[in-house]
Amino acid sequence: MKQVRSVDFHCDVLWKLLEDETLSFEHEPSGRLDVTLSRLREAGAGLQTFAIFISSTKSTNMAPILKSIDLFYEKVLACPDMMHIQTKEDLENAEQSGRIGALLSLEGADGLQGDMAMLRILYRLGVRACGLTWNNANWGADGATEPRAGGLTRKGLEFVQECNRLGILLDVSHLSEKSFWDMADATTQPLIASHSNVKALCDHPRNLNDDQIRALIAMDGRIGFTYVPQFIVRDGNASVSDCVKHIEHMCELGGESHIMLGSDFDGIDSHVNGLAHPGELYRFREALHKLYKEETVSGFLRDNAFTFLRKHLPAAN
């Protein structure tokens, strides 16, 4: 079978680098990172999204967000094999050169404190996707585990409008269900769920119900299947075959062209059996090939995400 330059729409390497600056993305012998340059090469990666995630104890201002971006430039983009993806043209250049694209996203906008000038600064620094909340509530919306299960605030709606205007992809993965529908009503651009699975198969607050999946499909959005074991099976003892069941369910809802990958590597404490880092992606690929033709599997692993980015990333000035 043909090797596909895979796309992963979510990892938390920057969070680990922020917590321990002795770690190295390029040369990390300790095994404390799931995603490293060597493992991305081993996976035949074409693009990796690096999320900026700030823990709740550090998320009250912009400083740790900016420090995470500095680490992205100093430790990830410093590797000659990596290329920062900010525009459609960058995407094509990375593909033609064989370098690995590095897309920068924000997971939780707490530190912006509702100031759209901060969002515009992040755009200028290269952020191209953003989730408004993590699991908790903030100034813009309620997250997936907020008990009151509210929706977007007035400032949250302003955030959606400004992301649409700038060309920042909006990520619904951590939103409450009410916030999801508020954002779906407010956006003029398709939404992504960078790392979420199927609620009908595993009833976790972070998973999407069938109506949400259908809504993302209807707007030509994207859903990143994630390797978080507790989002795959309730007891967390997940196998690669359990992963395939979530893909099958989304396809049954019409999502064959809307599925991508969003591993959440380095944001998880346990792993799917046999899928512990990018170098083991071949096991998932082999399992998918047993059910789907090569063109469809290529869509899941790469093409669906690339098609979306080609359409929705901003053009170079």
From TrEMBL:
Organism field: Paenibacillus xanthanilyticus
Identification of the protein by name: Dipeptidase
Gene3D superfamilies, alphabetized: Metal-dependent hydrolases
InterPro entries on file: Dipep_AS (IPR000180), Metal_Hydrolase (IPR032466), Pept_M19 (IPR008257)
Signal peptide: none
Top-level taxonomic group: Bacteria
Pfam families: Peptidase_M19
